[in-house]
Amino acid sequence: MDFFSSFWPWYVTGPLIGLYVPVLYLLVNRHFGVSSTFRDICAAFIRPTARYFQYDWKAHRWRLVFVAGIAFGGFLASGTLKTAPQGHVSAQTLSVLASLGVRDFSSLVPADLFSWRSLLTLRGIMLIAGGGFLVGFGTRYAEGCTSGHSIHGIATFQRASLIATLCFFIGGLISTYFILPLILQL
Amino acid sequence: MTYFIVALLGMFFGITLTNGEVISWFRIQEMFRFDSFHMYGVIGSAIAVGALSMVLLRKLGVRSMKGEPIVIETKQLEKGTVFGGIIFGVGWALTGACPGPLYALAGCGYPAFFAALLCAIGGALVYGIIRDKLPH
Predict the structure, then answer these.
(1) Statement: residue A69 has pLDDT above 70
(2) CA–CA dist A60, A34 (Å, integer)
(3) Which residue among A7, A160, B62, B101 is buried most deeply as judged by most CB within 10 Å?
(4) In a 3-state reduction of DSSP, which class is residue B86?
(5) pLDDT tens digits along B49-95
(6) What is the CB neighbour count within 10 angstroms for residue B57?
(7) Count of CB atoms situated within 10 Å of the CB of A6
């Protein structure tokens, strides 16, 4: 199908994502959020003794089913999108990234930075392991991520979520303008 | 049955994140460099549709499928909202992926993102262990 084998404009993607807020309340009466599953996975599979992990994760099993679905959806979409032309990422961004040392622009992620082999380089470890660690640590500390805070939280008019989203952006800007250029030089 | 629908919804969410280029490292860079409207359009219209439909559900007094009244879960404003938010933001710009896209990218078959996902789970683990020592 053409629809699934092409990239979608923001006005298709955004509203579809927004619908998850009411749909998940209707279905399981819970809020839309993804990062809480990091905690669930720790509690279910690693079983740490810390108090933070002593809770009934089984009551939130639906979230684990949901994220397993996300991974499977990514798998399906990566198949249908193989031959699709890339969306038009801003030429300005691409030229800045090229000047910072990014070389591979052929995929949705720069393969020269995000590959198995790059995990053996300091640069790769900082981006992949360091970045991943901060995403997990930060979202749990802030009690939410882009889905739970920025979309669900702001859509339900919560001040904490608006502040959280501003902080996500402050962190992202510091990272983009000051930290990423240093890492790319490694 | 509920789990089956949730799995389908998750699957479609993964497809949406991928087809919508939300999983694109370049799109996230473009957003933080203010070079394109794409990601602002995605997040902004998601919030608008989410807000409108929640207002509508409340106005109509709709109940959940289990027959319970819909109770919006609230988020508390704490020091962690700020500190954790900034820490997450730094990681978001490095990996180019927030938690949903991390799962989708791992499923797309990028092994590096499977590693990033494991490290995110590790981040949550470390947070849980040192939680009592952090300002909240």
Answers:
(1) yes
(2) 12
(3) B101
(4) helix
(5) 999 999 999 999 999 998 999 999 999 999 999 999 999 999 999 99
(6) 18
(7) 15
Strand partners, B69: B63
Q: Which of B39, B85, B128 sits opposite A164 (nearest CB)?
A: B85
Spatial distance between the Cα atoms of A111 and A117, rounded to a whole number of angstroms: 10
- How far is residue B99's CA from residue A152's CA, in Å, rounded to a whole number? 14
Pick the residue of B42, B113, B131 with the most A CBs within 10 A to test the interface with A by mutation.
Answer: B42
Q: How is chain A split into domains, by residue range?
A: 1-85, 89-186
Beta bridge pairs of residue B63: B69
A17: alpha, beta or left? (left if phi > 0; alpha if psi -120 to 50): alpha
Q: ∠A8-A11-A15 over CA atoms, to 5°?
A: 105
- CA B83/CA A171 separation, integer angstroms: 9
Instruction: Kindly give, in sequence order, each residue whose CB lies less than 8 Å from that of residue A9, ignoring residues fewer than 6 positions away.
Output: B41
- Yes or no, beta carbons of A115 and B50 under 8 Å apart: no
Q: Which residues of B touch A138 (CB under 8 A)?
A: 84-91, 123
CA distances from A166 to A130, A149, A150, B49, B87 (A): 22, 10, 9, 20, 12
| Closest Cα in chain B, distance from residue A91 (Å) | 9
A176/A182 Cα distance (integer angstroms)? 10
- Distance of alpha carbon A152 from its chain centroid, rounded? 15
Structure tokens at A156: 């339900």
Q: What distance in Å separates the CA atoms of residue A135 and residue B98, rounded to the nearest whole number?
A: 7
pLDDT digits over A70-119, tens only? 999 999 999 888 766 666 899 999 999 999 999 998 889 998 999 888 99
Residue pLDDT, tens place only, A135-181? 999 999 999 999 999 999 999 999 999 999 999 999 999 999 999 99
Predicted complex ipTM exceeds 0.90: yes
Distance of alpha carbon B60 from alpha carbon A88, whole angstroms: 41
3-state secondary structure of B70: coil
